[in-house]
Design a protein that fits this description.
The chain is about 70% helix and about 0% strand. By secondary structure, it is mainly alpha-helical. It is elongated. The mean pLDDT is about 85.
Length: about 70
């Protein structure tokens, strides 16, 4: 919550969305490990989060780009 308070109110909703996306992808990976006995690396999960976030950015959540690509 401390990190969230440091985010400008104008983009806080996007920050929350990104956090939920990360949690969701970790949860999906957890389910793969538990129920399908399929494991991937942490870097693969991160790559998957970035790919999904990119899709969201191009679809409707342009403010997510601030967190993923802070320098343009």
């Amino acid at each position: 919550l401390k990190c969230r308070k440091r985010v400008a109110k104008a983009i806080r909703k996007s920050f929350d969305t990104l956090v939920m996306l990360i949690i969701w992808k970790i949860w999906l990976q957890r389910n793969e490990r538990v129920f399908k006995v399929k494991a991937t690396t942490a870097s693969s999960v991160i790559k998957n989060v970035l790919e999904e976030a990119h899709c969201w950015i191009t679809a409707c959540m342009a403010d997510l780009a601030v967190f993923l690509f802070p320098h343009g």
